[in-house]
Amino acid sequence: MSDLITRELVASSLYYASEEMGIALRNSSYSPNIKERMDHSAALFDYESRLLAQAEHIPVHLGSLPWGLRNIIDYCDRERIDFEPGSMLVVNNPYVAGTHLNDVTVVRPIFYGKKKLIAFAANKAHHSDVGGKVPGSITVDSSSVFEEGFMLNPVFLMKNDEFVQETLVFFSSNSRTPSERLGDLKAQVAANVTGERRLLSLVEKYGYDIFVDSCESSFDYARRLVKKRLLSLRKGTYEATDYLEHPDGRSDITLRVKIKISREKISVDYSGTDPQLPLALNAVFGVTLSGVYYVMRTLTGKDVPPNFGAFSSIEVFAPSGTIVNPNFPAPVAGGNVETSQRNADLLFKALARASPEKVPAASGGSMNNVMIGGIHNGKSWAFYETAGVGLGGRPKSDGIDGIQGNMTNTMNTPIEDIERNLPLLIVRYEFRQNSSGGGKFRGGSGLIRAFQSRSDSRTVFTVLAERGRHRPWGLDGGREGVNMRVTLLRARSDEKARDIPIKSTTILEQGDIVQIYTAGGGGYGNPKNRDTEKIIEDIADGLITRDYAEKCGYSV
């Protein structure tokens, strides 16, 4: 049996090992999306696929990595694929791995003494292009997952610690940016090797039996801590409805949830949510599960270890064939990025009465996905990024300005990296004035980011965003945040900039400028109660104008 100090040392070491996995992945990757934006996650699991530790990377991966690993193990059992020492598997099938085709999962089985399977190291990274209809691979008008890019079921990436060349060739040749794909894939291998090395060093230091006992104790501690925190939530059943915006610009897609909180567990039921659609806004169950886990972690506390025990008190039911649990081969590229965001807003909305001292107003509610690419100087290129929003006002403080919110935790792509490596200019990048929802604690401000094409040939620009019509809601008397919009300015036209749909693909000529205006967060509390000094400070900082302050209901 292990003592208390050893248990804590093992648990903390596993957590920091997963963080180090992420650092190894970032530092050795090729694409700006991983190296600069850190669009990846890493985790360690025991041999039963129970989560030992997961780094604080991307919330939308929080539930999908454990769910995906269980699916991978089941798939390998069915197909008689044996885990081998020195092997790694790669998969991006969303219905197996749990997000969308761009998110590539690499798994390393970890053996002790080259005979006993004791754990898994796994990571997931968003590859900027995996084929499909448009550069960046994410488009809203796909009618099936087959139109969203190439798809891999679990297959060996490495055997006997050597790369399987056939896998590398298939993976790279089906992307518009093959060298990036190989570099990022090998970075994922480096991450898993790092995790394996750190986990085995713990087993060798403390012994296998003590290692296992320490992990079980950490599960139990997380389980007990979560149950204790549940006592602070108001018991009862809470319901909410929210909407995704259909690409037709008029219709809505309905998401509904019912959350039942008892002393022992939380049950989440999505009955009443709209059926799946032949659009890329379907979210596989792993994504939906991630939203639940993320929201519950924000309410139960960051000191709860992110392991199997932390989520064992949560039950989730999402009816098969719905937008939050579609059936294969429904398209899912946008569900991972946009439906996941709306799911977080939906859950917070339902829980606002259960935990009013913690739940914020709605965030900007979109990842604001931008995909750009084409042919330049005879070479194919593709770029992907998301843009920050305003977070919702909180019970005791303002929302944060211009930050990746809720289900994403990525950085921005530095302008220097974009302009050095791609035929693009960033001609505007700033906080969006007059976008925050008014309140005692205002919502955060959105962003303005503008791209100008410098390519010598036509460029394909795709945007997939939300909150174009349904503004981010306020709480406790707070006002709505301002909606998202996108404009296009043609270089060879006398016309002024015009709005284009926030879910669309547009062909750009050299000199054309596309400008995105992301949504601001909703406000919290009556705007009339906002501190006058804070209003004056926001005006001085250029976040709002005096006219907008009056429109928000502030006393100025």
Brief rundown of the structure:
With 556 residues, the chain is an alpha+beta fold. It has helices at residues 4-28, 32-35, 64-78, 94-97, 165-173, 178-206, 208-230, 285-300, 335-351, 415-421, 532-540, 546-552, and strands at residues 40-46, 51-54, 88-91, 103-112, 116-126, 155-159, 162-163, 236-245, 252-261, 266-269, 314-317, 369-376, 379-385, 424-431, 447-453, 459-464, 485-489, 498-500, 503-508, 513-517.
What does this protein look like?
By secondary structure, the chain is of the alpha+beta class. It has 2 domains: 4-223, no CATH class; 360-556, no CATH class. 30% of the residues lie in helices and 23% in strands. It has helices spanning 4-28, 32-35, 64-78, 94-97, 165-173, 178-206, 208-230, 285-300, 335-351, 415-421, 532-540, 546-552, and strands spanning 40-46, 51-54, 88-91, 103-112, 116-126, 155-159, 162-163, 236-245, 252-261, 266-269, 314-317, 369-376, 379-385, 424-431, 447-453, 459-464, 485-489, 498-500, 503-508, 513-517. The strands form 4 sheets. The protein has a 7-stranded antiparallel beta sheet with strand order 2-1-5-4-3-6-7, sandwiched between helices. Strands 14-15-20-17-18 form a 5-stranded antiparallel beta sheet, with helices on one face. The chain has a 4-stranded mixed beta sheet with strand order 8-9-10-11, covered by helices on one side. A hairpin with a 3-residue loop joins strand 4 (103-112) and strand 5 (116-126). Helix 1 (4-28) crosses helix 7, helix 5 crosses helix 6 and helix 8 crosses helix 9. The longest helix is centred in the middle third of the chain and has 29 residues, at 178-206. The mean pLDDT is 94.
